[in-house]
TrEMBL record:
Residues 1-20 are annotated as: Disordered. Coiled coil: none annotated. It holds the Pfam family zf-CGNR. It comes from the Bacteria. The lineage of its organism: Bacteria, Bacillati, Actinomycetota, Actinomycetes, Propionibacteriales. This is Zinc finger CGNR domain-containing protein. Residues 137-180 form the Zinc finger CGNR domain. It comes from Nocardioides agri. InterPro entries: ABATE (IPR010852), ABATE_dom_sf (IPR023286), Znf_CGNR (IPR021005).
Amino acid sequence: MARAGLPENGEVAPDPRPAPPDLEVLRRFVNSDNRFYGVDHLRGEDRGRWFPEVVGLPVDDIDDAGWRRLAVLRDRVRAVVADEDDAMAALAETAQRYPLVLGPSGLASARDDQESAMATTVLVALHAAIQDGRLARLRLCQRPDCQWCYYDTSKNGSARWCSSDPCGDVMKARAYRSRQRAAG
């Protein structure tokens, strides 16, 4: 498997299309809902281990209600990455729970709790991606049973799959078989 997943040994495979360091937290937050393997790290038992490793923030004081709110935030951010209709309005409504202040080092959380710190980190990364146009390079794999979030580094910005193996190969084979059925 070419992308991050859940191999039997529990180790996560290297991701072939990471984002630039300042956007990687955003991409990985979206991928906390690993649809290919059917694992939601915001709702799973590994969230206390997975998030400090991935996001670099402590999470031991986030309660179940906080994790549910973060899952809603994640799903709204995913909708923005997918460029769904009204996604920005839905995200703005959810983001009101996490007010930001402008401090000496830039935008920061107005609250001093771990849930707000995680949400702020994600929202600041999303804001930066929108402002400098890099959000257009953050994509969801077009394989319906995958939808892994990846950063498109192709010259013309036309990558459609998180990796060629297996997603690109599977989708090309499906398209070929569809054309063969239509022709014959």
